[in-house]
Amino acid sequence: MRKILPALGAVCLLLPSAAGAQQSVADFYKGKSIDLYIGLSAGGGYDLYARITAKHMEKHIPGNPNIVPKQMLGAGGQKAAAYVYEVAPKDGTAIAAGPQEIALEQTLGTLPIKFDAAKVQWIGNPSIDNNVLVTWHTSGIKTIADAKTKEFVIAATAATGASAQYPQVLNTLLGTKFKIIAGYPGGRDMDLAMERGEVHGRGSNAYASYKATAPEWLKDGKINMIVQVGLAKEAELPNVPLLMDLGPTPEDRAALKLLSSVTAVGRPLFTSPGTPPERVAALRRAFDLTVKDPAYLAELQKINLTLNPMGGEELQKLIEDTVNTPKPIVERLLKAIEGRDVKELPAADATKGGAK
User: Fold this and answer.
1) Taken in order 273, 279, 281, 287, is the CA torsion positive or negative?
2) Does 290 lie in the same domain as 258?
């Protein structure tokens, strides 16, 4: 008995510790609110995923805090990310819905804000799906070959973001003639610019977002999908080429695979660095429970949003692997995305969502 009792005592000491941590999280969040800073415009894919996920996460967080969505537009979602990284409380009461390419931009050294993707606490991503570069049906561009014939205007958010990078690498490696206009606040603004004829296409959006926000465009052939970005083709897009397959050399293809890997980051949620570990764990667990919640699944299905989630721990590792990409691959990609063909939309026009 003398040999067994100390071991039993140790177990008894551990059990209250775990229960205490859970109770501590509940005590902290009870009666509080969590601010959710959404970096892109209302009505787009980022916004919809963030709002719906947050609404259902509330009941799975100990203490049941309210999650309050707040639009914080700027620099293609980077303003919200920088705010949660540097300014917001480091206690689990601030979450960002940030751009999927932010870790890649850090790796490439093109990120214009103070931010370290490996230090923030990633909560989860509800949607791993391919991005697509699209053109409007009246643009005259239906294929990569068409885009080599004359200059076409493509809308983008940040000059260093995915919506500018995809057409830029096509220009550099394949000789397309996209003229990239960066500075649009978000997806809806770029879509409106296409409809108004101010631009010929949009540099990036998730295929799943088009299915949710503009199903009539797909049905009526309003947009042409020129290229898809991901690590495998979407089952519904067998004839749309993968960006990473288009590189002329093995080195180019390795660089394009790095660029394409950010699609796995999807529509991510993260909280501030320095957030206590037990609260990070609680937020991640709440996310994991949410993506299995029947009410959440039903709401996504109602508006045609797909669910293909990645949990916080796996997402954290993916981000850290991106930040630590071997230098030769990074340098090759940098050469391919030099922003020679990117122009910034004037601030006044960006507010209106129009390219002049």
Assistant:
1) negative
2) no
